[in-house]
Write a structure and sequence with these properties.
The protein has three helices and no strands. The protein has 84 residues and is mostly helical.
Length: 84
């Protein structure tokens, strides 16, 4: 979905007016918000990759809980108002 913003120089028009007209055309076409929206876009992970990451987090969480129970690791202090 490419919306090109194109302007041609009119007779007797200064370069500054041409740039101003081009900027207005770009704003009207909505090019800048669309590009800014794509700036930090990341691909969605596949179900298998999501599942693998979830299993890794669960196992790591269990391992840390076991180390805390054994006294080999200090429990992290609670940060923030609603954290567990």
């Amino acid at each position: 979905m490419a919306a090109n913003a194109e302007v041609t120089k009119n007779e007797g028009e200064s370069a500054i007016n041409l740039i101003r007209r081009f900027s207005k055309r770009v704003q009207g076409a909505g090019v800048i918000p669309r590009i800014r929206g794509n700036r930090y876009h990341t691909r969605t992970k596949s179900k298998a990759v999501q599942r693998k990451g979830a299993l890794k987090r669960i196992s790591r969480r269990d391992e840390i809980a076991e180390l805390i129970k054994l006294g080999k690791m200090l429990e992290k202090p609670v940060r923030g108002k609603f954290r567990r």
